[in-house]
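Lecture notes, structural biology module. Today: joint structure prediction for complexes of two components.
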Amino acid sequence: MTSYSKEVIRDLAAGQLPWPQTRRIMSAYKDDDRFFKMVAVYQDRVAWKDPILLPVSDHLFICQSGDERITRCECGHSFGDYRKNWKLNAAINVRNTEQSLREIYPNSDLPDPEWMEIREFICPQCGTLHEVEAAAPGYPIVHDFEPDLEGFYHEWLGKPLQGT
Amino acid sequence: MLDKPASALRLRERLLDSQRLMEETGCYDGITELTLRNQDPLKFETLHTKLRAYCVSAREMARRISASPGVREVGEMVVAIYTPEGDAIALSNGIMVHVHTMSRFIKWMIKKNYEENPRIREGDIFANNDAFIGTVQVPDVMDVVPIFHEGTLVGWAGAVCHELEAGGITPGGDVCLAQERFTEGLFVCAEKIGENDEIRRDYVIRCERNLRMPIYWVLDEKAKVASCIDMRESVKQLISEIGLDYWMKVSKEFIEEGRRAQLARTRQLTVPGIYRGHTFYGHVTAGKPGFQLLGDPDWLYNIPIEMEITTDGKITMDFEGTQPWGYHSMNCTPAGMDGGMFVTLTQHMNFEGLVNDGAWMATELKLPHGTWTNPDNEMVATATSWALLLPAYGVFQRLLSRSFIARGFVEEAFVGQVNSPMIEMGGESQYGTPFGMAHFECAAAGSGALAIKDGLDTAYVGWNPESDMGNIEVWEQSMPMVYIGRSIVPNSGGAGKYRGGCSFVSTWLINKTPHLRLHTSEHSSRVFDNGGTCGGYPAPTCQKHRAVRNSNIHELAARGEPLAHAPGIDPHMSDYEKNIGGDHVVVEGPYITSPHKEGDIFSHSYNGGGGYGDVLERDPIKTAWDVENGFLTREAADQVFGIVLKDDEDGYPKADIDATVTRRAAMRKERLAKAIPVADWIAAERGRVEKADFAPEVKKMYASAIKLSSRFTKDFSDFWNVDARSIFTPGAKP
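The predicted structure, tokenised, for the full assembly:
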């Protein structure tokens, strides 16, 4: 069975693994112990102790926090119950003018702000930009991901889900 | 009279039987045990490898018969081997989207009882480019030949080439002005075009009389037929070695194995759950010549996708809430949607083991009737289906990637494909002859970023994983334009910790022609039709066209003065305007205008991919390299990424790490100071929603989605706490 050291997985996640080695990992059969190894890498990265149950974005994790399962930023900020859309508890900056779009696209033609806006979802504690939506004005905010945590742990990983 | 299959069951009955068995057992053709694989796995694998080798070899041989730079240079071709019922067993590399669309074509003929009339016999050649039968768009012309063994039909060999000219209302393959089927060009509707391994002369005459550049289409037909015969003979030889019974069983076990492997890979690489995303496409044609006023000239489409991965490993994609079909060229048939799914799977999940139709069988598409994904009118045009397909499957790639990230396989996450607008042309060639063609250098856009590195620059399109822009010299042989520039477009990748891949822009001098019609398609300029992931921004929208009519370029060249080779980095005034005299033209959206002539200049930009991650985490040293090499501008490095660059002793950009850290800390504070809680934004925005205070095209988009989808209506109403129906469709019956 293919398997890599935790150090290799850490460097891979950080984008610091040399390309030839990364390429070999991409081409090889996948390592079945990846998930828990990656979770351990993320767990080392965060300063908080709540066990990570699932990474959901570059700096967002579903974790077991006491009796609750919440979406937490790497900085520790809680976005609440993992079943709810974390974006609703974020801070937002909307770019819907030529001037504000020009800040991100200084040398390109721009979309029409009457047709399209950019929404930046930001951690209110550390200021990390977690997600960007490009949407027509008035379009509801998207709930990106509703994982089936129970099914994933019980049926695919064959492990109990903490807190159950 | 023609021979008929020796099997006890006719083809149509066999197909129905196979479908029934799948429904009853959940396994392809009722194969619940992979008996032959278990008996001798090495033989099993070796045989599939042989079949794949037949396909790859046949495609490479055929590309050398073709006259089309699209096929020869860019590789716009794929071949595959099928079961008698039309399910793909093995395929070549190339435009794999068509492996499953050809499957639909074969099944269509079987269901229409072609066995009775026009009969299916050894040596027959059938062709099709009707998307409602089984292809994506008119230029995707497919040929299939039956494979017989001692009188029994034992399979099919099939090949597709993307034609550079289809004889439509506008020249080229992606007929951008087509607004209904009757303007798309030459249709071949599941037609028997040859017998005894020979293409019929009357069919060739029809092609020669109805195409602007028949040499491409006709030689491609010969290339495809040659590849089919090559595969057929190889399969017949194989059957003589392994026996007919073994072939009939193993060919189906290959597919069932492919289906199981796809389910297993889903369970291995992803996380079950519901994933959602969307993208948009904006079309701008008001006031442009040639468009009939059959629908709104300017319109906005939303493309929402909900993907569900269940614990049994099945992936379902649901397009509910998207827009109705329209009188434009961008509609898509279910065959095209299938093809998009298939080619995406082959790149992201089905890249090892037995690649075949089995992967597609482990997925499901929900395509709402009446929408652009599944028109309830077979007269609609699908000539530029890719305009909506590519953004849609870019969303699919982002949704899949989120599941890879959640599972820890960050190296597989990819921000997705983008539209790559195409140039088509026709008129009088540099040789004084009539001509028409699509320019296929668009097959080398920028890719979306990965979760661990930047995207590919000028090296990816979704429809052909073997992306290639073709050599300048080859294109120049085929059209009355010469290149005066082909260069990277700075900042064309979406910003992020890892930027999207950059695109390129070409600039041409129109040469040796008094009449050159230039058109472009797949051109969403008002809205992003791509997206970023995990904090990355979308790549810029399609850039405007910039042309110079009656330029003074020959005088400038004679005087040895500098020319402009690209639009430059000032969005308000291009380098053409700064350096070249003449009548300057800036056109948004599809380029539909009066013919050009010798001495004019035309430029066309392709699209880059979306970014990944927070821009303030981008590597400053990599960014300095990007600026030095033209992938990013200094302005972007400073203002978007917060990276302070200074010049080294040789004048090259060098990152000032300490100053960058300080600047980024300030930008992060500024970001927080500007942002407001989402709840406050929703409360403020709700008033605008209640008043429907939006541009007419945005209001129309909501009204259309609400009419077609009760789920969209409910989601919209619940989110804003409004009655969406009364706001956008007042007076309409629920």
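Point to remember: Chain A has two domains: 1-45, 46-157.
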